[in-house]
Design brief:
Layout (H helix, E strand, L loop, with lengths): L3 E9 L6 E10 L4 E5 L6 H8 L7 E6 L2 E2 L7 E4 L11 H6 L9 H14 L15 H13 L5 E5 L7 H16 L7 E6 L2 H7 L2 E5 L6 E6 L11 H15 L1
Helix pairs in contact: 6-7
The structure holds adenosine-5'-diphosphate and magnesium ion (MG).
């Protein structure tokens, strides 16, 4: 049984009546890092929101460990491209929001949130407000909020694309470090990216989407050894291969 199964998902925005997703199917195994890449406007964000249970597919279904995803779930967390932090709450309070729907004492919530902020190198910034932080640190808060509930599945929509390249690199490394611990959740990740290098650096599997109405063009397994050396011939060759599949 696949960890996450996306099964013949189609979607049309009612307002425009233009089909966006056309019969999308793929699966993500336990401990797999899967990236979705595709042209701008092809429906990557829409698809990720459908998997999160935030919007309903027009047809098709998604299964997490064999169970239908039919609405938001505490087993699934989301990281947004623009961070989506609440500016009137402190960083600690923003992270605690990730536990808002989990029944526990507030003191326990606070302890878990503080531990996660510490793990993501934000110690000392607990009581500051998000607007005082750099983009990279804001996304660390966004990531902390997503991870604090121990989700089985982590969804990330272009999480590094509003950061400069150096900051993005350091945050990618942090995410890969967090995921290395297989005893801890999340078990699997689905990330939307428009950056082929980033997808090759991070993923075990890359799903390449077409232009609208969007179908799955290719599914490519990336079995390069980790940590990945972006300068190596194998890495470059994989990037080139994905580029040509993307463009064909
Ligand atoms: P991507 O993330 O791949 O760039 P999106 O999922 O954001 O693509 O959007 C897919 C398509 O759906 C685009 O053509 C976009 O204009 C359209 N779209 C996105 N959101 C809405 C909406 N709320 N109502 C109508 N159309 C939308
Ligand atoms: Mg998008």
């Amino acid at each position: 049984m696949a960890f996450l199964k996306v099964d013949k998902v189609s979607f049309t925005y009612q307002k425009s009546n233009i089909p966006v997703l056309n019969n999308i199917s793929f699966s993500c195994e336990k401990f797999e890092f899967l990236s979705l890449i595709g042209p701008s406007g092809c429906g990557k964000s829409t698809l990720l929101r459908i998997i999160a249970g935030l919007i309903d597919a027009s047809s098709g279904k998604m299964l997490l460990k064999g169970k239908n995803i039919d609405g938001p779930s505490k087993n699934i967390s989301f990281v947004f491209q623009d961070f989506a932090l609440l500016p009137w709450l402190s960083n600690l309070e923003n992270v605690k929001l990730g536990l808002a729907y989990i029944d526990m004492d507030d003191s326990k919530r606070e302890k878990i949130a503080l531990d996660m902020l510490n793990k993501l190198e934000l110690t000392g910034f607990e009581d500051a407000y998000p607007n005082l932080l750099s983009g990279g640190m804001k996304q660390r808060v966004g990531l902390a909020r997503a991870l604090v509930s121990n989700p089985e599945l982590l969804l990330m929509d272009e999480p590094f694309s509003s950061l400069d390249e150096l900051t993005a690199n350091s945050l990618r490394a942090t995410v890969l470090e967090v995921l290395k611990d297989k005893k801890k959740l999340p078990e699997s990740v689905v990330m939307v990216s428009h950056n082929i290098e980033e997808a090759v650096e991070m993923s075990d599997k890359i799903v390449i989407l077409s232009n609208k109405p969007t179908i799955v063009k290719h599914i490519v397994k990336v079995d390069l050894k980790r940590p990945r050396d972006k300068g190596s011939r194998d890495f470059r060759r994989t990037v080139d291969r994905i580029y040509s599949l993307f463009a064909d």
